[in-house]
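Annex B. Sample input.
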Amino acid sequence: MKVLRKQELETSSIQAGDQIVIQLTGFGKFTATAQKITDKGTLFLFDDCVTKRPMNTKRTNKGGYEKSYLCTWISNFLSAAFPEYLINRIENLTIPTYGQMFGHDDWYNDVMEPDDDEQLPLMKKRKNRIADFNDNYDWYWIQNAMKKEFSSSLFANVSYYGLARNYLASNSGGVRPVFWLVK
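Annex B, continued. Sample output.
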């Protein structure tokens, strides 16, 4: 009988699909999966949400993700929770974009603020877009705001079922971090 078995090993070469375990001070222990390997390093996406936070404290998407409460919170608070051995190797700690999760489809083209990202290969399977928070399926934020002509209060998210949705910026949603681990 053939079986697939996960096994922990020490390696200097990470492959797409490899998982690392990260202890975040104050949040717990999480796994992150290697999504993309480049000369720069490896793009990791947490497998689950580490917390819930609003995108903004008010119902607005003004300034997009870069000017959001969540972006500031990730930069100032979440980044400090990473273990010391990783902190100096992490770049661009953030949340995923619509393009990384879903690619660019008609809904994206019609109503989302654009990004230049291609869909991550592992995200082509919906099951990989589904995430937990405290042992329950949960929705989580992605960076793209709705275009102003559709709504000035909504950001995109990934639903409990791994589908594209949007929600009010002031509601608390899951935070599923993504980051580059540089060489």
